[in-house]
Design goal:
Helix content is about 25%, strand content about 20%. The protein is an alpha/beta fold and about 170 residues long. The protein has a five-stranded mixed β-sheet with strand order 4-3-7-5-6, covered by helices on one side. β3, α2 and β4 form a beta-alpha-beta unit. It is rod-shaped, with a radius of gyration of 38 Å. This is LytR/CpsA/Psr regulator C-terminal domain-containing protein. Pfam families: LytR_C (PF13399).
């Protein structure tokens, strides 16, 4: 055996660290691809609770489940019934020392579409511009508050007129 090595003496060839890392990266990417699918889909897979039956392959398992793909609709906001501003009576009351305040605000009320409205003066002390309303006009009172920029809303009690929304002013609107 002069100068020749036998097969048994040659040793084992190991891959370089770069090749080993590349192989691991490819395997990890393949697993991630298999788990997440093809990506970009806006569908969800929802398992059915009922067992499935196939005409080409009979299933004997009572616990088998099938999956179905459901495309989710875009979210939508619920629609709110429009408020008939002309059918609701609005009273505007001046509880301030500013002459003509109720009449000035009444112009804004009518311009916003609340045409069934009137104004007057009250000598009762109030602390802030407030809209008083009966329970049945809660949505309308909120809309009137938005129209006028009044954030104080108060559902009235049994003494509150049940046929109207009342706007009480202690200062000019901003």
């Amino acid at each position: 055996m002069s100068g020749h090595t036998s097969r048994r003496d040659r040793g084992v060839a190991l891959p370089s660290p770069v090749a080993a890392i590349s192989i691991v990266a490819i395997v990890v990417a393949a697993i991630a691809f298999a788990v997440t699918g093809f990506g970009g889909s806006k569908t969800k897979v929802i398992p059915n609770a009922a067992p499935t039956h196939s005409s080409t392959h009979a299933s004997t398992s009572a616990t088998s489940t099938a999956t179905s793909t459901v495309t989710l609709p875009p979210s939508s906001t619920p629609t709110v019934a429009p408020i008939n501003k002309t059918a609701i009576h609005v009273s505007v009351w001046n509880a301030s020392t500013t002459p003509g305040l109720a009449k000035d605000v009444l112009v804004k009320v009518k311009a916003a579409g609340w045409t069934n409205s009137a104004s007057g003066t009250t000598h009762v002390h109030y602390s802030a511009n407030t809209i008083y309303y009966p329970a049945k006009y809660a949505a309308a009172a909120k809309q009137l508050g938005l129209d006028l920029g009044i954030t104080n809303l108060s559902q009235g009690d049994s003494a509150t007129p049940q046929d109207r929304i009342s706007v009480v002013l202690v200062s000019p609107l901003s």
